[in-house]
Amino acid sequence: MHSSFFGKKGKPVLVAVSVLSILTAGMFAAGFLAGSSSKGMAYESDYERYDSGFVIAQPGSYDSADVAVIREIDTQQGKVTLMNIETGKYYTLAFDGTTLIADKYGNGMAMAQMKNGDIVDVTFLRGKKKLSSIQLSDSAWVMENVQKYNFDILRQSAEVGSAVYSLRNNLVVSSEGKDAQLEDIIRGDVISVRGVGNSVYSVIVEEGHGYLRLSANDYLKGGWIEVGQEVIQQITEDMLLVVPEGSYDVHLTANGIDEVRPVTIYRNQEYTMDVSGLEPEAPKVGKIVFAISPSSASVYIDGEQADISVPVEVEYGVHQLIVKAQGYETVTQYIRVGQELASISITLEEGEEDNAGQLDEEISGSTVSGNSSEISASDLSSFKIYIQSPADVEVYWDGIYKGLAPVSIKKEAGTHTITLRKSGYVTKSYMVQIDEEESDITYSFSELEREAEPNKVTVSGNSSVSGNSSVSGNSSSDDRNNTASSNVP
């Protein structure tokens, strides 16, 4: 006979009693009460000779226990794949209606409520590969809907919120229920993080990213595109922006153009916005009155020094503003001009001596928000990042088209996004961290996967990771159909 229950902390406890033991004990007691000890002893002797100790498996029986991370749940097949957090070993167990399933408080739940990346306490029959019980571990912590994070793959550390954790080598990364890599997570993705103590064991992408491109954007080149508050970038030819999934107002500004159109970006899908109908009008000009402290500070707009002793005339749209002074920290920001008269007040903070003499050139054409790149204090312009493979794919560096692989890019330290694209294949993006070492870096990525069915979204009309940039191969491509993209490695 067996009985099982959740004991302390909801852990299953097995109570097993031999049926023969109970029967024998009953016979022995009956013989003793009848005063016939010889017959009672005969039964006991028979039991000792023939009892095998066999116990019939019942719900809750187990011979092994682990703390593990859920890698995959197949509810149709009744199987769950787990990873032991200590050894990193993967194994698959079968579950059925006899499997005990509970939250960390011991309350019952369904297997469908468990998720990839959950850290669980499990018991199982090793030989039968049968899951006896699974319970959300009360020793694990969970942070959901995380937007502020930074993964340092080189140092195996993760900054989540204001805390720093270590990344385990056997980290489980998942996106849309499929295996992924940390490099697949792009700034702007929303994630959930799970761990034990000071270690992160799983990262799940809750909200991912898609892609946005402009077609027939001749009049917009050199202007600016704003996708909500998520992305602000200068418009270049054949650009491909990585944008967090969601709905946005896209603001397009250039000489004589000021257009707003709505867009919805779906995860792993490419959206093409046809802007061929846009034609420039006479540009509008606004005036900005500056109040800057200290008064010795220099002000630059789009790389040109401005005389702020009088109101400064600036065309409507987005402009880059740099304010710097000796002995103060430099301020760099983007401003939008959309009215006839506006004022800007900036007070610089005292800090290290200004080293931004070359910022005008370095920041020009850079991006902010989800596609931003950090500026290195060291001069790496003579070193290169080589993208070797896969061959003949379009390479985008922070959304800017660089040519067909193999291709070289000027080395810039910081976190960057590399996007690989080819018609008929699944678009793929990687987050890379470029060091400040004075040396070249070469990347070779996995071959792109063929897409099952082209997933095209086109809107027309007014509907609302390391060198000098020498491009190898043909820098233009006429065959750039919209494709779906995936983060499956």
Please describe what this structure looks like:
Among the domains are: 2-50, no CATH class; 64-136, OB fold (Dihydrolipoamide Acetyltransferase, E2P), CATH 2.40.50.320; 140-207, Copper binding periplasmic protein CusF (OB fold (Dihydrolipoamide Acetyltransferase, E2P), Beta Barrel), CATH 2.40.50.320; 218-274, no CATH class; 285-367, Sandwich (Immunoglobulin-like). The protein has three helices and 38 strands. Strands 9, 10, 11, 12, 13, 14 and 15 form a seven-stranded mixed β-sheet that branches. A six-stranded mixed β-sheet has the order 5-4-3-7-8-6, with no helix packed on it. The chain has a five-stranded antiparallel β-sheet with strand order 21-20-17-18-30, with no helix packed on it. A hairpin with a 6-residue loop joins β27 and β28 (331-337). α1 (19-34) runs antiparallel to α2. The longest helix has 16 residues, at 19-34. It starts with a strand and ends in a 30-residue tail after the last strand.
Which helices and strands, and how do they pair?
Blueprint: E1 2-6, E2 12-16, H1 19-34, H2 37-50, E3 64-74, E4 79-84, E5 90-94, E6 100-102, E7 119-125, E8 130-136, E9 140-146, E10 149-152, E11 157-160, E12 163-175, E13 178-179, E14 190-196, E15 199-207, E16 209-215, E17 224-227, E18 231-234, E19 241-244, E20 246-254, E21 257-265, E22 270-274, E23 285-293, E24 298-301, E25 304-305, E26 312-315, E27 317-324, E28 331-337, E29 341-347, H3 359-363, E30 368-369, E31 384-389, E32 394-397, E33 400-404, E34 407-410, E35 414-421, E36 428-434, E37 441-444, E38 456-459
Parallel strand pairs: 6-8, 12-15, 16-22, 22-38, 23-29, 31-37
Antiparallel strand pairs: 1-2, 3-4, 3-7, 4-5, 7-8, 9-14, 10-11, 11-12, 12-13, 14-15, 16-19, 17-18, 17-20, 18-30, 20-21, 23-26, 24-25, 24-27, 27-28, 31-34, 32-33, 32-35, 35-36
Helix pairs in contact: 1-2
